[in-house]
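User: For documentation purposes, I need each entry recorded in a consistent format: the amino acid sequence on its own, followed directly by the corresponding structure tokens. There are two entries in this batch. Please keep commentary to a minimum and don't merge the entries.

Assistant: Recorded as requested. Entry 1:
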Amino acid sequence: MKKFGSLVLLLLLSLVSGQGTARVAYTRPGTMMKIPVSYATRTPYLFRTGFGAEVHNFNPLNVAKGVYFDMELGKSFLFGFSSVMGADTTSLANLGNVQTNIPVEFGFHLQQRIYTYGDISVSIGLQDIVFQNDPQKGLTLDPQQLSFFAVIASEKSLGTYTMNTYMGFGTGSLAPQDTLPAADTAATNKTKAGVFAGFILNTPYLSKAGGLDLVGEFDGTGINVGLRIPLTSDYRLNLGFTHIEKLPDWKSRYWTGHPGVTLGLDMAVPLAVKKAPAPTGGPAPPVEGGETIELPGLEEGISSSVDSTLRMADLQVHTLRDSMQLMDNEMRNLMIRLAAQEQRAKFLEDSLRSIKLDRNVLVKNMNEAMRNLSRSLRYFYTGDYRRALEEVEKAIELNPNLALAYARRGSIYYKLGDIQRATIDWNLALRLDPEYEDVRNILKALHENRLKSTSLLEE
């Protein structure tokens, strides 16, 4: 199939090598219809060749057609060649009646990738270095077609789809142009530079052959749309329309930017894959002119072995990654637990300090309360019950759980004749200290009406 396709394309090349225009769709380097492209990596083919045609009228037939060839030379440098012939630019009334000699054009295309970052690339180049083979003037260079351009490209994966986008500017044949005669238009477009943009969407349809491509672009003059249909992994049938916004003028006139129906075919020869050397003692694979010769079954075996090794390496990498993730999670958990323990230790330390402080305060209050009780006892002996009561109140304020203070206050209230308050304080003292026998005896004597003043607590 590949040999047959090569013969067909070479035959087409020999038939139309004297026919074309620089702006014929699918005759420039790259996968777009008329605009330049850029690649972030080396092109996946050794070279591409094919033909393209634009039908501008069916009756009578008026066609622009051409062939092309391009390949990547060295590092990031792309070279292309095209040989094309344009359509007849006479009026539709005279089309087919006037014998016109349309010059043959030979175009060269040079392009250099100057920057890449991930899936983004930038290229600059010269396009349409066109030589015309005019029967009257001979071989001449057409400087108006010469195009300097710069293009930025990106590639994005959208699930099972892949989107390539291109934006840039160019001069010469990449600039907007409309070559209508002066009688048919009020003004001729003199713009010498313009912008272009486009995209190519690779779909999962016909994925075994590389996928169906949808093409859309603005070439500086109009909008082109097309399909690139994979026949095999190496051959694509190219269909589409150029300048669809001018389709209403299809039957009224013709000019370089005329709408057209496009047809093309291209073949991409993939890069040769180096084969492994023959086993020790076996015959070496034949090499001819430095080319690598395929050995049946060997490439499949090597590919299978490499794929198996890569799968094992990928599994090991994922396993190590998962282990590192697990260790990282465990480390984080340990750090969290350590932080919690440090927080708990600080809390216990603060609690211990608080307990010590409370204990110190309690001891201090107890000492002060006992001094107040000692003073109240002196006032009690001298009969100054009011001052004795004040000292007892201070002792209770310092230590509300001191049974002796309540017992002393009960005795003072009894001396003051307040039996009810005295009874309450004695019961409070007994509640705080159930083993307080002196208070128990006083309450018992009070209940039996045999309490004497001499039996009051005076210690």
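Entry 2:
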Amino acid sequence: MTHSTPPSFRSPIDVFGDWALQGKDKGMETGHARAVANMLDFAIPRVQSPESFSFLDAGCGNGWVVRNVREMAGCRMAMGVDGAEAMIEKAQSLDPEHSDSYQCADLMTWTPEQPLDLVHSMEVFYYVEDPASLIKHAFEQWIAPGGRLILGVDFYRENTVSHDWQEQCGVDTMTLLSQGEWMNAMDQAGFQECEHWRVDQHMKPDWEGTLVLTGVVPSPK
């Protein structure tokens, strides 16, 4: 479900653009580091060709995940896409030698020049009206056959302490799905070998952890 919001609430792109200008992007990096490390530790050894893989961070913020993955053995290309222009500008300023690795675009319509082996996204896919459509778009347009999508979300129905975040952040679009609805969206998109788990569950009062979801685009038979 998508919460109804007052007219004064702003789009996620506008809110997170302001966060970049205010330096709050560093706190996002720190807060998500443990979950992202868990996700990458799972996904990177399972890419089809660990000795040569391409990587996308969808909703890359200041580009910290892109920079980290680029330094890993086997990564031949790492890029990031974000809808907030200020976030992309921050990423480019922090990584000037690879400034063309970052693109400002609407994830719902963006497509890469070539499909990628591993697509990662942390705390992004619920900032649209229909996350299932974005998952389907990723399946159809972003990922090479045999490639993997891995998502992390903290705003989900079972994690009740997250339910007031929309009001706290003043964001006009946050779609609250259950764990089962997220998994169903992965299945319906066509992903195979789907798995889910939670990271850092109960590390603080009533915290259900980061929900991680992953699946593979099937290779042609």
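Summary note for entry 2:
The chain has a mean pLDDT of 93.
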